[in-house]
């Protein structure tokens, strides 16, 4: 057992007594009541369970919550799919997915929202050449699985969103 | 002036002497034989080519099979590109079976262009001429691939090819395979394959400063770049739990109770050992475990639920790290999930004495293979102390050997060297 506290969607949570091998996705779903993060394959392959994590240096990464214990997130700053919209207003990434009809059943969507947002944040720090955008989307989202086959629409949504924001790219 | 003249004469005499040595000793002359073209020989050659794992080095990533161009890093700075061994003008077109055998077994078919020992003629010298001819027949039956191989990037003085004859004189054995009449046919077949076409020692035997295998340290485990090739002597294998049956399963599938293949060995399993027939797989296992015959299906030792605690040490930090970072895939008890997640309990990599591979896998992770998904890397998330705590917990809990405990400095040392 460990005393666990962290920041989730900007709010301090815990301390909670949790077993060392409690999966983070179960902690989010059952203890914090944040059910938007989905458990799917359970072996770290499909990436439906991906959340965003802000590292101590301020950089944004993603982590899979089905294969990582909640205690490995101790004192981290985590963002789940519930933490993106503000005052009922979808984030740019969420809106792009809606506009492109990217998802159907929606089970993979929280993972795509977190990975897409992390990609945007990473590009804001390190913009890429416009010709490299498709590759960046492929690298950022390419491992995520969508059983309804929304891949092309997720891909186009992210590509168009990145190309429409001049702070994310640079001229070659 | 006189001294200079003497030195020049001495250098010239030395050079001419060395050239004469290269011409006389450089490569034994062998009997000319016509290329065999019957299908049975070509098929046998295809099988032997797989056993020799020619494709793993002679095929570039995403390149055509056997067309060469794969970069082979050396410890001397720079590296070599493997040759095109298809029957094209950039490859082996125009070669005779005698020249092919000379290159395969002795590393040279001309005094001007000896081959670097990255090509394992240092092992292939035990391959019989008949087997060499069958391999040649198979390669010559392939479609020619017209692909130029880039120039090697070895620095001076390693780029002086002629010097290789001196290296060969010092280090390259030329003896043919001699079966041990006291051992079984299966053991001898295994010996022929392991020491010859299988060229296992090329990775698993340590090398000296000039890159030659140490003859007295055969198969005790070695490190070239990145991961370590473990100890595969009979003692080393038995100690880490390998049995004949599990070794054969590992050759055939790349996985088994002692773990799954990764790094360079993944290619050796995929392209070579898994293609060996069951008799040859069994023979290689028999030789490596020093058995004359495959043991009858004995009851495997039942794994202990709780291995004995060898050392007084505080496992709590390591156990917490294991539960939090590893157990969700590998299981609380380290048994993994069959065919999905490798077991750590009884895993041969966990039981390696110096823990180099275990530290590297934890720190770097592993790429996905054809059978398993990727293993995440933990170097960014766990400190050296945490990795040493975790590795100590793994080794004390999931191996039946009394392995040394690691300190954070050992982890840092391993990571800095790689």
Counted beta strands of chain B: 6
Largest interface: A-B, 17 and 15 residues
| CATH-defined fold name of the largest domain in chain A | Ubiquitin-like (UB roll)
Number of strands of chain A: 7
Let me know the largest β-sheet of chain B: 2 strands, antiparallel
* Order of strands in the sheet with most strands of chain B: 1-2
The total of helices of chain A stands at 5
Global morphology of chain A: globular
Average residue pLDDT of chain B: 90
Shape of chain B: globular
Q: How far apart lie the N and C ends of chain A? A: 53 Å
What percentage of the residues of chain B does DSSP assign to strands (E)? under 5%
- Average pLDDT of chain A, to the nearest integer? 95
Structure, briefly:
Chain A is 33% helix and 19% strand.
Can you offer a commentary on this structure?
Chain A is of the alpha/beta class and 172 residues long. Chain A contains 5 helices and 7 strands. The model of chain A has no long low-confidence stretch (mean pLDDT 95). In chain A, the strands form 2 sheets. A 5-stranded mixed beta sheet of chain A has the order 2-1-5-3-4, with helices on one face. In chain A, strands 6-7 form a two-stranded parallel sheet. Chain B starts with a helix and ends with a helix. In chain B, helix 2 crosses helix 6 (129-140) and helix 17 crosses helix 18. With 418 residues, chain B is mainly alpha-helical. The interface between A and B is medium-sized, with 17 and 15 residues.
